[in-house]
């Protein structure tokens, strides 16, 4: 939930959600500089960031100072929602708090005086990831619940015989657009070793299973991922289609 008030109450409303959601970032996984040279990745951070909305999600917008403007809104393929008196407003890749702030600012421009806006998550669109490399059914995979890297690979048909199960790569976007990378040892996970797959896959993650060594992720990055900022639903389908039909 997020609420925004223009005026003297703004500071108090800003501080409350930040205090509740603050958490320390703990880097893990491989260093930012990969041992095969370019591309270079940001250090992995195992944080639990606030949810960011993407096309296909639905939000409930409550305008407390003008209830007749409140409604549910679907985020369209272009990342915008259509709201009364505002028209189309870009909200993709923002948190509920950031969306509320954006809408409050928009309404405050010659429409409402000191608007109070609340945004809640109503429904989520497809929670898709991409699995590529040495798996039997590479492409787009829809998440139906919390999964780790091993479950994600199995959802993509499982490993091919040529897969390097000990060096599976997970790529994830940072909120600012940078790409993080870490490797997981799914060979150990298959043997039931505790902690071998200690990672929860998130929406828009990319999982790459190399043929022999992790160095192949550089080729994969250049062929499918480089230049895609941010990774959204439309790009997800484009990459998945390229991987499947390669």
Structure report:
- By secondary structure, the chain is an alpha+beta fold.
- It has helices at residues 10-21, 96-108, 149-155, 186-190, 216-225, 233-244; strands spanning 2-5, 27-28, 44-45, 58-63, 71-74, 80-83, 87-90, 116-123, 128-133, 139-142, 168-173, 179-184, 206-209.
- The protein has a 5-stranded mixed sheet with strand order 10-9-13-11-12, with helices on both faces. A 4-stranded antiparallel sheet has the order 1-8-4-5. A two-stranded antiparallel sheet has the order 2-3.
Strand content: 15-25%
Task: Find the CATH topology of the largest domain.
Answer: Outer membrane lipoprotein wza fold like
Question: What is the highest CATH level, the class of the largest domain?
Answer: Alpha Beta
Low-confidence regions: 4-38
Q: What is the CATH superfamily classification of the largest domain?
A: Outer membrane lipoprotein wza domain like
Write the CATH architecture name of the largest domain.
Roll
Main pleated-sheet profile:
5 strands, mixed
Radius of gyration: 20 Å
For the record, the count of structural domains works out to: 2
Secondary-structure element pattern, one letter each? EHEEEEEEHEEEHEEHEHH
Identify the overall geometry: elongated
Q: Can you count the beta strands?
A: 13
Distance between the termini: 43 Å
- Mean pLDDT equals 76
Estimate the helix proportion, in percent. 10-25%
Structural class of the secondary structure composition? alpha+beta
Q: Strand arrangement, largest sheet?
A: 10-9-13-11-12
Number of helices: 6
